[in-house]
Amino acid sequence: MNYKPYEYQKLIIDMIKEKRRCNIWAGMGMGKTSSTATAIHELNAYPALVVAPKRVALSTWPAEYEKWDHLKNVKVAPVIGTPRQRSDALLSKAEVFTINYENLPWLYEQGVKFKTIVADESTRLKSFRTRRKASKKTGKLTVKPSYALAKMTCQATRHINLTGTPSPLGLTDLWGPQWFIDQGERLGKSFKAFTDRWFRAEQVGASRFAVKHTPWPNAEQEITEALQDVSISIMPADYLPIGEPIYKTLHAQMPAKAWKLYNQMEKDLFFDIGSKEIEAPSTAAKLTKCLQIASGFVYDEFKSPIDLHDGKIDVLKSVVEEANGAPILVSYWWQHDLNKILRAFPQAVALGDDPSIIKKWNAGKIPMLVAHPASCGHGLNLQDGGNILVFYSDWYNLEAHQQIIERIGPTRQFQSGHNRPTFVYSIVTEGTVDEEIAVSHQRKATLQDLLINRMKKHG
Prior knowledge:
Shape: globular
Strand content: 15-25%
Distance between the termini: 33 Å
Structural class: alpha/beta
Number of strands: 19
CATH architecture of the largest domain: 3-Layer(aba) Sandwich
Helix content: 40-55%
Radius of gyration: 24 Å
Strand order of the largest sheet: 3-4-2-5-6-1-9
């Protein structure tokens, strides 16, 4: 695909090219990944290391290079997996290496140097401190991921911080990531120097280590001014048409065993798993079973779920990481999906009949609200609680699909005075009937249309 950057993406590219070390604060959907990859490529600033949450490092960055024509010849090597797999990836002739934060101590020990380092979701560095602490169990100094990255970034020519939420819990979150840009030049050589200058410390509770930092009245303006020359902020509301939701498809992957069952159901309308036989008596029933498999499970004849994979759970985890504390409304279709989500995300709350749940959501007290479209009918207001909707699993019912979008949609956001776009993510298992549902909603197709098309393909 030919790459034609938007004006705001050009601003990102120019910032990276002009500043060897910089902060890119751009919200979800603003194309900061492709912009950063383009800038690095135009600078020929290889080898480059991209540090990101595991799934983003494994799938999102490599996929971005495969997507755009000008980046297709750039080899990307995910340094993920067993120690042997990571070592093999490092030895490959790649220009870009991607790794998750947890494996940074291992990478540091390998002694590899990079010209450019990108910290994707750089708020992961907010707890970085220049002083290492000894382990309580062993008494030995431990190498934390952020400390390992600090050592490597001092040897790199360029460092780029990427995030949409630079200070999710307040101004104190800024010091850690900023250290990687200037080693304390703008905000202080140490976290203590930073807080001593701009905050009033208050002890909370009996422990002397439990301290609350309250910024002085001039803190925000002075800190902002200190970071202006090395930071750029791209706000969605300034560039995107907030009158329409911003849609994005996120692809989940199925393991080989699940694919075998899926293909057998497509072909034969049944398969055996353990001692149970899963059968679909009709084309419509086959579609239902295929959707369930794509979602990660299948119901047997007694409506008991059989777990198959966690592909969609992994994708949802990456959305939570990228949202970085912003509330998320998650739509599901199958009861077993709800159960899996609640197990994987202890902070999640299911939308039920209790009216206090909606009040808590709109008050910002629920980080993840999980709802079935049938429970989000006309008149339900959820827009104050957030502007991010994720379809974990979906169905052919176009009205239900549209109704839950409207609960936090652009009209309601505007009516409530929120100058922000609505983000709608669909988690789609690649190569499955999931994709057909997504397309059907885009062209407002009916179930009958889809059934006819499916019979044409597989009849």
